[in-house]
Amino acid sequence: MNNKNQEDVIIFALARTGSESLYNIFNLHENLECISEPFNKSNNYTYHAGNEEELSSSLNDIRGQFNLIKHVWDPKGWPFQDASLNKSLVRRFKKVIFLNRKSVFERLVSAEICRQSKVWHIRTLDQRKIIDELEFSPLNERAIQWAVENENRIVKQYIDFFNAEQIAFYEVYYEDIFHSETRGLQRIDEMLDFMELNHFSGKYEVTLRSLLNRENKIVTENVLSRIPNYLEMKNKYAGQECFR
What we know:
Layout: E1 9-14, H1 19-26, E2 34-36, H2 52-63, E3 68-73, H3 84-91, E4 95-100, H4 104-117, H5 125-133, H6 141-164, E5 168-173, H7 174-178, H8 181-194, H9 205-212, H10 221-225, H11 230-237
Helix pairs in contact: 1-9, 4-6
InterPro entries: P-loop_NTPase, Sulfotransferase_Stf0_dom
Pfam families: Sulphotransf (PF09037)
Protein name: Sulphotransferase Stf0 domain-containing protein
């Protein structure tokens, strides 16, 4: 990739898999111009994708400025009303970074904490305070059970889809990027290789390490201890995912 418009890439990520940090990392690269979740209606973009025609039109507009899109999706179809548009979207890209999380249960807990607090990233002390002082409602057992029973099956369907459509993809897990700084830096280099981009120079090392740092993570032991049925749900569902 010699210039910002030669080839485009999509980060295709489930929620709470570290996609925002990965987006911020790639946005540092001189050959990448990135946009975050253009089809998420809670953002202030005006891109529409209610059908195939609107999706194509919006992507044409986006590609006029950006060559990497971060797209967060849900196994039930969000952010589109028509779930099939998620596959239509990735089909339009030359390369896909498929970002997932090994623990479905932990992903769901993190997403529920964010949903209840309306805080998705810790950037200020006020956001930290909201998370640390909120009285959380119990976790939705029905939602957790559905995800534990179905999520990895749906993820496998996407892997099969990529292979059938001959879409080049790099599959990576949250745990492989953010649980170990050394391993995280290695994964970043591997993703840059996949995109045929140069590795980051030494001047970015401090920033990269900061973005990989999990000290400001939303989910802490203090937060988990204030979720009424967390331990009950953990004992019942953690580690019970049907892995592909």
